[in-house]
Amino acid sequence: MQTYYTRATFQSLLDAMIPPTFTTDTCGITRSLGAVDIRLEDYVLWVLDDKLAPRLGLNEMPFNLSDSTAYVLDIAANQLIQNNQAIMVHNDPIFPGGWFTTLSRRDRLKAVMILEGLKVNVENLPFPYTNNPGFLLNMMDGLNRLILFGFYSEWIGYGEARFHPTTYQLAFLPPSWLQVGYPGPSFGYRDFRGYLLKMDHQGGVSYA
Fold first, then answer.
1. d(Cα 120, Cα 139) in Å, to the nearest integer?
2. 43-86: per-residue pLDDT in tens?
3. In the chain, what are the domain boundaries?
């Protein structure tokens, strides 16, 4: 079970990567949902702790993989602040947590870039990141892919069944599908499969 601190940290990460957007048309201002609006943190935390950690043999660790990942994000954020590289630090953040949650969206992404560039002392990182730069790089890349996949996949559309793979059934079209104009799955589409050819050979005519 993740702590409130961990959940707030991942909400901050999601808010920086896929924030809500606003468009203006003849009807006025329209707000498109961001990752936090659809509770995408549920998906990311679930994959990290219930799917990825057991495969890596980390499910016996004293804390969740999501907890240690949140702490790593905080270390990068604190380094950004200590080096006076943060544009703005909020004393009353939207997602109250650690240092990472106090940063602006732009600075949160800068903190992620610090980790992607291995510009931290890996000796000070929590397990399983301690002295493991390869794992850190893989996780930062994996988080980016995981967030984008979760947002644009059908996962949120499964509704209450989304945490139970054996009972998956699409309950509604995910908001991201509506944003990009994807109509949803189909039983099949018309497809060009070539021309009907006559092939002459001894004994008659055959078709291919």
1. 15
2. 999 999 988 887 777 767 667 899 999 999 999 999 999 999 88
3. 4-182
